[in-house]
Amino acid sequence: MELARVIVRPVDEYNQKLVSHVHPANWVNPQPADCYDLVVIGAGTAGLVVAAGAAGLDLGLKVALIEKHLMGGDCLNVGCIPSKCIIRSARVIGEIWDAKNLGINIPKQQIEIDFPAVMERMRRVRAGISHHDSAERFKNIGVDVFLGNGRFASNNTVEVGGKTLRFKKAVIATGARAVKPSIPGIENVGYLTNETVFSLIQRPDKLAVIGGGPIGCELAQTFQRLGCEVTLFHRGSHLLNKEDADAAEIVQNVLIQEGIRVVLNCQLEEVVAVTEGKRLYFSTNGYRDSVTVDEILVGAGRAPNVEGLNLEGVGVEYDTRRGVKVNDYLQTTNPKIYAAGDICMDWKFTHAADAAARIVIKNTLFSPFGLGRSKLSSLIMPWVTYTSPEIAHVGMYEHEAKKQGIDVATIKIPFSSVDRAIADNEEAGFLKILHKKGSDEILGATIVASHAGEMISEVTTAIVNKIGLSKLSSVIHPYPTQAEAIKKAADAYRRTLLTANTKRILGFLTKLS
């Protein structure tokens, strides 16, 4: 069967290079092996890690990888990489805006933003790293790569491109996609999602962003800084409502200060085409209003890609909202078939898909030989919202601990007390550590800072390795760094161990000396 051609717009040298790596038009699917130890459907992060990990074990395993669209999945093509590229450009604008506070005066009207160049740089960077996820690279490491629609044909076979692949075990890693909004009229006027917004080459003057979660907030701030007039719509009473409320408030205030119109508690009622563009009618707190924009960007949720796989035919249970049903070992209701990544997990992060893929490798290839099984519930999962400032979190929130009946104590270190943050003019953030009451065991942490994502791993490492606040207090942190806030939090815990009686004894001994 002839391979369906994939086009990524704009069709420039960078996107052509990208496609030549992740869905080459001249690709010829191999002749299937007699039987595969592992067949993986979906070549996003989870699928790539499973396939590469299994093939790289040097055990002579037969591994097949199927992808119907672009290898690399969301992360490379329409997620992590392109978004962080344009966020980096936008961060420069934010730093220029703040430069006056550091003694550098650059009037806003003198800042020249070359939006096409920002997007071209993103495409160049994406194409430059795409070889890591390329069909040719996976072929070279011993994976049989099949481009086309994969579909279960029986309990031990998958069909793709007119060929039948027999397997011992299979993995579903087909990911998720942006949820279609149910707003009357929006389909008629058209809208952008993370899957199409990075194809822009001209800046929309006015942009509506629907969804006040991480994707919506990150892109709203980015496009505002790049020169758009942004209106951000959110159904909740405050942005980032799944995050620590104090952290979310800081980011929300920054977005408002930077000129974004934030509309909370809103119900989007209708979208119509008008001469000036696209008009959204909405109501909030009992009032009806409208706004006219050039483009609408929808960033409100993800839907699992469960269609077309014939999951019913092989006894794999799924839900169209939550995805494929798995147990703690990432095994589906068919014991021969596993799943990993956005298709089955609440954690829709690249690093979560990577971690889940490693669980699948162990549980499909090693556990049958009595080498133990890994559990999804054992993972300690950090995440980051890449606004300015960033919000990073790991472990429990206070309400989660209380729900489990755990008595907790909180240590909060404002960055206004951290010398490096003061020097950097970045005092608005904080570090908050949650620990078990009467113990130094760390249960969770939230950091709000310019580079919170770079700082959270120290706390994650401590939780994973059961390193308490007492030991963290003895770790020497370079001075001055913002990560010194972690040591300050650990020192604050140590001070709570000094009872009134202990303090009196120490004071007496000090006088004697």
Automatic annotation (TrEMBL):
Assigned keywords, A-Z: Disulfide bond, FAD, Flavoprotein, NAD, NADP, Nucleotide-binding, Oxidoreductase, Redox-active center
Cofactor: FAD
Residues bound to NAD(+): 211-218, 301
Highest taxon, organism lineage: Bacteria
FAD/NAD(P)-binding domain residues: 36-355
Alphabetical list of PANTHER family matching this protein: MERCURIC REDUCTASE
Homology family: Belongs to the class-I pyridine nucleotide-disulfide oxidoreductase family.
Protein name: Dihydrolipoyl dehydrogenase
Biological source species: Nostoc cycadae WK-1
